[in-house]
Write a structure and sequence with these properties.
The complex is a heterodimer of chains A (133) and B (530).
Chain A: H1 25-32, H2 34-67, H3 69-72, E1 75-77, E2 80-81, H4 82-122
Antiparallel strand pairs in A: 1-2
Chain B: H1 3-26, H2 32-37, H3 44-55, H4 58-71, H5 76-100, H6 107-110, H7 115-148, H8 154-205, H9 210-221, H10 238-254, H11 259-262, H12 271-302, H13 315-323, H14 330-371, H15 378-400, H16 408-432, H17 438-457, H18 484-500, H19 505-520
Helix pairs in contact in B: 1-8, 1-14, 3-8, 3-12, 4-12, 5-10, 5-12, 5-19, 7-8, 7-14, 7-15, 7-16, 7-17, 8-12, 8-14, 8-15, 9-12, 10-16, 10-18, 12-13, 13-14, 14-15, 16-17, 16-18, 17-18
Classes of the chains: A mainly alpha (133), B mainly alpha (530).
Amino acid sequence: MSHADHPAQPGGGDAGHQQAARHDPVYDHLHASAEFAELRRRYRAFVLPATVAFLSWYLLYVVMSNWAAGFMSTQVLGNINIALVFGLLQFVTTFLIAYLYSRYSAARLDPLAGELEERFVETGATGSRGGKH
Amino acid sequence: MDHQVLTTVLFLSVVALTVAITVRASRSTSGTSDFYAGGRSFTGFQNGLAIGGDYMSAASFLGITGIIALAGYDGFLYSIGFLVAWLVALLLVAEMLRNSGRYTMADQLAFRMKQKPVRMAAATSTVVVSIFYLLAQMVGAGTLVALLLGVDSQTVKNLVILGVGMLMIFYVTVGGMKGTTWVQIVKAVLLMTGSALIVVLVLAKFDFNLSELLGAAASNSGKGEAFLEPGLKYGADLTSKLDFLSLGIALVLGTAGLPHILIRFYTVPTARDARKSVLWAIGIIGTFYLFTLVLGFGAAALLNTGDLDASGNLAAPKLAEEVGGGAGSTGGAILLALIAAVAFATILAVVAGLTLTSSASVAHDVYNNVYRKGEATEQEEIKVTRIAAGVIGLIAILLAIPAQSLNIAFLVALAFAVAASANLPTIVLNMFWRRFNTRGALWSIYGGLISAVGLVFFSPVMSGAETSLITGADFAWFPLSNPGIVSIPLGFLLGIIGSLTTREPAAEDRYTELEVRALTGAGAEQATSH
């Protein structure tokens, strides 16, 4: 197949939208299914709060480094102060959120996504850009 | 043995190794899927290593070590921001991009928008970000090599820049994504092994007691406790505190908008593998940034930091020499040469990734999909990529030679700010907001790009201060050297306002397909070879 990404098809939209012109109705069916709504809900239920949490936690660190230098300089153990512990905790939380997301997505997202994708394959649709090249 | 001879031998070995890898990879490369995406056949672990190799640049290895060695605790922000940023990529970008795109950053926008204008815009910001990043690496290579060979001659630096430029053109035109990926994997292994070795040697000097290391760093720095506390570099007044905040925001939001990182998500078979690669990358990169903490404070504790260059870029190799037995010792010479060669490999792997990304965008987005309306054959497109790699390489060489007075960390921070202002807003809005459309995307990309670059132009970085690039003139009215705090919200805001001021039913309609594909992988690009 040629590398033409998106030949416009009759009735498939205006000239500026060549790429999206091959919108297959199967996507509408999948989109309307209860499983898809559930998949999207589960995905957002994890990533949106997690994103708010880690960005706030990180910004708190930056702001405290700036405007709470006295507190940050408190020594905890020998020469190790709160600033260093706070910085290292950013590493810990990053590893932790990454680990939790990998567990969550494997258990709660992948099975649903796999089921929907299988349904898509069964309809014989190949997507906007076809399968193997 | 003389360390200069040893260094030269190791540098040439790195070059020979990477050239051999590239030639080998070229034998299994045929179509565009191989050339741009490595056949989408890398495993999550391999791609995780390659992401590490693509991401941990000379600015991280040499730059962060140097900043911590000179400015103490404040340099740690870079390590933290560069790592936390990966959560944005993991949670919001990697999998969805893998499912909805093909070769470039523009693909996922063109999916539902008017593709000519959005591809032009995305290609423009891809090339701009990549060139800033390229300049940083090439300038770093010139300085590093000249100083390590003990020759402070402009001709040598220029020759090194020329050499690095020729090499990166070679990697990309011959090896494509497969060659580039293997170069990055080898580099990641070298960098992790080399820096782990130095970290162990440094810690051994302090009986593996972190507190003792910090105490020695504080007293040797001559700044006492303040060296271990925030504020030494950025705490003087409100302006510098805002600069610190602005830098922090750009670092954490920039990563997931860097085009050379984004296209790495296309090199694996499925979105699950893209997720796995980011998880591996977080582990590898996180470990590396913990190393930089020890390297930086180790350099402060063990070296006479007054002897270092002003940027601190040589702190890491000098530290290696010190823990190997000191200047003049065989152990010192070997470790110095080893770490210098690792730094050189680091630079080569990063420039290869950047050149591939920007030339792929020129060929795939501009040449094929805009100029040829998507009708070029794969062979034509690859041919144009090779030409573009040559042209971009040449431009980078020509710009890097006069840019040698620029600070490396500044160039990289600028690339992050542009990526966070111009690229991240469109990626996030496109994936999460049905109402987003072509006008919003264009306003966001061009607005973020122009404001980020423009604010730097009118900042003390360019004029009006002692350390400015242009001395004897003052046209600075923006007080911060990091534009992110203004340009990133502006990028998001323009995307939202642009979209709300017009309706584009086609883009909204096709969001349905985009959303299903992004979340389920239905209809996503398949791997071509295993």
